[in-house]
């Protein structure tokens, strides 16, 4: 068995768990880096990933396939919300807000922007 050469691969991201983790990671990274705390970021990332998958199968997917990809994006979004909520609750249970991450280098020292916080 060969060791994986990268953390995320095309094979891993095309699974339900892989794409859900990718959405949580990208959404939280964007939120942490740019200060965007809107839940639409996760929905946008989810739908873009799923619709992109539909276009990767064929050059021009039919409308049904695109609609199905949007539905899959909504399901991935729901899964990502659950993952983020669990991670936030676990961080809060440990006694640190949102997992205890500190503010980034561009943020003022008195401001705390934890990595895991509620999206709503």
Helix content: 55-70%
Rounded mean pLDDT score: 79
Q: Helical element count? A: 4
Shape: globular
Please indicate the percent range of residues in DSSP E strands (runs of 2 or more).
under 5%
Describe the overall structure.
By secondary structure, the protein is mainly α. The chain has a domain at 15-97. 60% of the residues lie in helices and 0% in strands. It has helices spanning 10-13, 16-34, 40-57, 63-93. Helix 2 crosses helix 4 (63-93). The chain is globular and about 45 Å long.
Question: Can you give me a brief rundown of this structure?
Answer:
This protein has 4 helices and no strands.
Key structural traits:
120 residues; mainly alpha; 60% helix
Task: Lay out the secondary structure.
Layout: H1 10-13, H2 16-34, H3 40-57, H4 63-93
């Amino acid at each position: 068995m060969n060791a994986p050469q990268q953390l995320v691969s095309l094979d891993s991201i095309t699974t339900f768990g892989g794409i859900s983790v990718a959405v949580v990671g990208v959404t939280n990274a964007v939120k942490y880096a740019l200060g965007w705390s809107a839940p639409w970021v996760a929905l946008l990332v989810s739908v873009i990933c799923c619709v992109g998958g539909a276009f990767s199968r064929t050059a021009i997917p039919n409308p049904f396939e695109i609609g199905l990809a949007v539905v899959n994006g909504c399901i991935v979004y729901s899964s990502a919300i659950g993952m983020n909520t669990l991670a936030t609750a676990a961080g809060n249970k440990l006694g640190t807000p949102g997992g205890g991450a500190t503010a980034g280098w561009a943020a003022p020292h008195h401001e705390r922007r934890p990595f895991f916080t509620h999206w709503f």
